[in-house]
Structure formats: C-alpha cells, structure tokens
Amino acid sequence: MAGPVVPSSPTTRFFGSPSAVYLSAAILRGAFLVYGLWQDANSPFKYTDIDYLVFTDASRFMNHGKSPYARETYRYTPVLAWLLLPTAWATGSSIWDVVCFSSGKVLFAVADLVAGWLLERLLTMGGGSLRPMDGTTARKFAAIWLLNPMVATISTRGSSEGLLGVLVTALLWAVMARKVTLAALLLGFGVHFKIYPFIYAPAIVWWMDQERMTSRGPGDTSSKSGMSFASRIGAFFTPARLKLTIISLATFLGFSLVMLSIYGGPFLVHTYLHHVSRIDHRHNFSPYNTQLYLTSAFPHLSALRIESVAFLPQLVLSCVLIPFVLAKKDLPTAMLAQTFAFVTFNKVCTSQYFLWYMVLLPLYLPHSSFLKDKKLGITALLLWVASQALWLQQGFQLEFLGQSTFVPGLWLASIGFFLVNCWILGIIIADVPFRSKS
Predict the structure, then answer these.
(1) Are residues 127 and 208 in the same domain?
(2) How far is it, in rounded angstroms, from Cα 291 to Cα 151?
(3) Rounded distance between C-alpha atoms, residue 418 and residue 294, angstroms
(4) Are residue 127 and residue 21 in the same domain, yes or no?
(5) Domain region containing 427
(6) Are residues 299 and 418 in the same domain?
(7) Residues of the signal sequence (predicted)?
(8) Which one of 120, 203, 346, 375 has the fewest CB atoms closer than 10 angstroms to its CB?
C-alpha cells in the first residue's frame, strides 16, 4: 500500500513551473519599466541611465545617415546603435514615441530572460563542479539572476549588460557542449561588442585539452611525464584549440574591419583605443578613483599615467594566473573568478559591471562555501552591500550636495569596497581545488 502523498511547498510548485518563474521575471522588469517612465516624468532624479541617452542619441544620428560617433561619449560598437534604431523612430504620437524610445530597454530586459534560460540549460546539463540538476532546482539558482531586483533595475534603466549576459552564458554553454565553431563565433563577436570577454579565451583554450574534447571526460587524464618539451608544445596545439583561435580571431577582425570601412578612424578610437587612456572618476567604485580625478584635473603634474598602467595587475590575474590555475578544474567558476577579478581591479568600476559576474554566480553557488556555511554567505553579502552603500553615501554627498568627499571619505570607501571584493574573490578561488575536474 502506497504511503501518504506529501504535498509540495508553494516554493517548490513555483520553481517547478517554468512559466511561473519566467513570467514573474518579465512582470518584475515590466513593473520597473513603468515605474521608470513615471519617475522620469515626475522627479528631478531620472530613472533612465545616462548611457541609454547616449545609445539612443547615437541611433538617432544613424537614423539620419550620420555616424554614431557624432554623439560625444559614444564609446561602443555601431552594432549596439543599430540594434536600438527603433528608439529613433518618430511617429508623431506621444504614446508611440515613448514606446519606441523604450524599446531598447525592453530589448535589454528580454536579454535578461534569455540569459536566465541559458543558465537553466547550463545547470541542467552540468559540468565543472556541478552535477546535472532537475529543472526545479536549476530554476531556483537561475532565479538569482532572473528575479534579482538589481539586475532588473539596471536593464530597465537602459544598460546593455543583459546582452552581454546572453553572449557570455551562450559562450559557456557552447564550450561545455563541445560546439567549438559556435563558441568561437560567440567569443569573437563578444570581444567586438564589449572587449572584456577576451579574458575568457585563455581559460577556454586551456580547458580544451585533447582528452576532454574527444572523450567528454575530465581531461588531462593521460600522463605526459615521459614527453619531451617539444612534444608537449606540439600536443598543446589540438584541432579544437586551433579551430577556436582561428574562427574567433576571424570573427572579431571581420566585424571590426566592416565597421572600420564604414566609420573609419573614429570607430577604432572610440570603441577600442579610448579605453587605454580612459579617465572616468564619476560613479567609479575603483580604488583608482581619486587618482583618476587628480589626473584629470592636473594631467601635466602626473609623470606616471596611472590610467594606462592600471591594466597590468588586472590582466595578470584575470588572463594568466586564474585561468592557468582554475580552468581545467572548473571552467564556470574560473570564468566567474576571472570576471570578478577583472571588475574588482578595473580602473573604472560601476554598478553595471557587477552584472558581468553576477550572471555567472548561479553556476558557482550550488557547491560554494557561501552556501555550505550560511554564516559566511550572509557575512559576505552584508559586507558587499554595506561597503557599496558607504561609497554611495559619500558619492551622493559629492555629486548632489556639492561636498568635497574625495579624501578621506570617498577614497576610504573605495578601499573598503575593494578589500571586501578581494576577500570574496579569495574564497571563490580557494573553493576550486577541492572540486572534481570538469
């Protein structure tokens, strides 16, 4: 005789229904979008991000047959302005003009949902430290992204980070599924679109050893102790690695050459070269913030161009040390650690950049120390939020009240936030050696 049926909890029923989860995520973004329209119309503090105004202005220039770089401070690929061309359509109806203008925000919000769906696919597929999950459990972790108010707010304010979330999660899915051509295309386009995904190339190439790509096993299982140095070098250049490198480079160069032929030198200067000497001290959580402010105010007094050398520790960590140590053990977590290090050590660190690593969190958290030790997880979250809030309080006094808080307030807040992030990064990295290889 069968035992009594234990009723499922409301939470289990909710996450057991894909339509409930994704509809809730869509409603959350819809609510923020509508609220944003109201705030823009009724408050001096605008909901719409200034970057969205830059995007849409660039699209308006393109709609009139001009270059998007006619809009000052447009520092992105023309592809983004092309995607947002509907925002420049003028209908003569105030309602439809608002709809057209908001279409870019809708695109970014939809991209959030697609990234969440790809996270669910990755979690059910397994890989890295993850064993394959059932759909209900996978959606619980994907909800860290899908139902996150911070993610929803940033996208509906008009930040394009949702598109990057799709590119990065699709790239990881393609790699884990051994779809090398698709992975190479996504990597090449991702670097063209936003530059920073290039950091994933070393990790992916290092992960793609011959054993892993042919057997779908953990990789590196055969002993190479008897091989000569020349043989080891030759063995490194596997068909998968060569294919990924050639196709991704061709994709990046192809898109870039097309844009260069259409828009000329301004494309190179504003999309790529600008970031080498970029000095942004507004809304910047980075510990370089105060130094960048002083450099922008007194450029002739600075012998060392901090904006040009700040890349060194960032790139050594995210492109060399972390990929080499972690990638073969756990690629998803290695990519999270790379992104976390890249953002933490970047000379410009804004709230939008946090989404670069938040989209990878659901792939790390299921077997992380932060979930195994609830006290550690809660402490890390509270410190991350509190140190960020302290910086925002100092930033508010500076930008809205006109008080000079650069030193010591803003500088100490930046250092505090940086140290908290370094501590969290250390825990993420320390988690990996205790896990099985992917």
Answers:
(1) no
(2) 30
(3) 20
(4) yes
(5) 277-438
(6) yes
(7) none
(8) 375
- 321 in a domain, yes or no? yes
pLDDT along the chain (438 residues), means of 10: 62 93 98 97 93 96 95 94 94 88 97 98 82 92 97 96 97 96 98 96 94 67 61 84 97 97 93 75 74 64 63 92 94 97 91 95 94 96 95 81 75 93 97 66
Q: Please tell me the total count of domains within the chain.
A: 3
- Give the separation between CA 133 and CA 366, rounded to whole angstroms: 10
55 domain-assigned: no
Q: Are residues 240 and 308 in the same domain?
A: no
The pTM (predicted TM-score) of the whole model is 0.91
In this structure, are 351 and 438 located in the same domain? yes
What are the beta bridge partners of residue 130?
A: 127
What letter represents residue 399's amino acid?
A: E
Strand partners, 141: none
Q: What is the dihedral of CA 378, 384, 385, 391, to 10 degrees?
A: 160
Query: Looking at the structure, do residues 206 and 154 belong to the same domain, yes or no?
Result: no
Cα–Cα distance measured from residue 8 to residue 102, given in angstroms and rounded to the nearest whole number = 40
Question: What sign does the CA torsion over 160, 162, 166, 171 have?
Answer: positive
d(CA 281, CA 349): 9
